[in-house]
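Readers of this paper often ask what the protein records in our data store actually look like. The remainder of this section carries one protein's record, kept here as part of the documentation.

:::
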Amino acid sequence: MSQKNETAVLVSALFITLAVIGGSLWWFANRSGIDIDFSRITTPSEDDNSPPIGSDRTNFASVQNVPNGLFNYGGSTTWAPIRLAVDSAIQAARPEFRLRYVNPTSDTPGSASGIRMLIDGTIAFSQSSRPLLDQEIARAQQRGFGLQQIPVAIDGLAIAVNPNLDIPGLTIDQVRSIYTGKIANWNQVGGPNLPILPFSRQISDGGTVEFFVQDILANQSFGSNVEFVPDTTQALRRLAVTPGGIYYASAPEVVPQCTIKSLPLGRGSGEFIPPYQEPFVPLSQCPKSRNSLNLEAFQTGQYPITRNLFVVIKQNGQSDEQAGDAYANFLLTTQGQELIEQTGFVRIR
C-alpha cells in the first residue's frame, strides 16, 4: 500500500474513533440525565490558562444577579468588623447595591433578633454567628417561606481573664464547670486561691451566648455565680479590674486587647492550644505590639471552640432573596474572603 493510501486509512480510522467516542458520550448523557457541555471540552493547547469549570469568582465586580436598590439588614454583633470593612468595600465596588444596617426597635442587636426581624419582614437578610434553630425554621414556614443559611467565615471563641491571673490554660470541661457553678475557685484548676467571677451577656442578647450555652454548657443553665453584663465592652472593662474574672467572646474582640489576656484551651488536660500566635506578646508592649489571632488553629480545628458565621436568606423568590444571595456571593469571592481574613476571621474557602 502506498504512503498516501496509508495516510488516508489512518485519517479515516481517527475520524471513526472520534465518532464512536462522541456517540458514546451522547448516549451516556441522555441515558444518565447528566448535562455535558461539549463546548467546554478542549485540549490543553486550546485553553491552558482558563480557570477550572465552577471556579470561584475573584472580585465584587464579577458577581452576577445583583439587584438594584437599598436593602436593610441586621443581626450579629460579632459581624461588626465585617460590616465596617467588607460591606463598605462592596458598596464602593457595586454602588447599585446599597446596604443599611438596622437595629431592632425593642431587642438587643444580635443573631436572634436579626433572624426575628428577617422572618417578620423588617430586613432583607440577616447575619448570624450561630446556626438556625428549629423553631426559627418552623416560624418562617408558617409565614410561607423557607430560610437558608450560607457559611461565609470561621470564628474562634476566646476565653479572657485578668492579665495578672497565673494559669496555663483551661479545658472545655473546666470552662463548663466554671460557668455552671461547679468550680468556684481558681485553685481548683491549677491557679491561685482566688474566687472566680464569671461574666456573661444574657442568653437573649446574641448568637455568641446561645452558641456558648448550647455547645460548651451542653444546654445547662448558668450558675448563680455568673454576673451578667450588657455587652463585651463592659465585660472587658470589668475583667481588667477583677482579679478573678473570666469572660468569653469572639476571638477578634479579645485576643488583640491590651488590658486582658486570652487563655489557651484544650479538649483535655495538657492539650492546650492558644487563640493567639505564639509567642505571647506581653501586654506591656501593647498597643505598639499586639497579639495576633491563631488563624491556622481555627481553620484546622486544632483550637477547640470554633463556629461558622452565616448569611441567613429568606427563600421567597423576591428581591429579599436576591439581595441575600448576592451578599453571600460577594463574601465568598476571593476578594471577600481576603477582606474577611483581614478583619480577624478565617476564610471558609
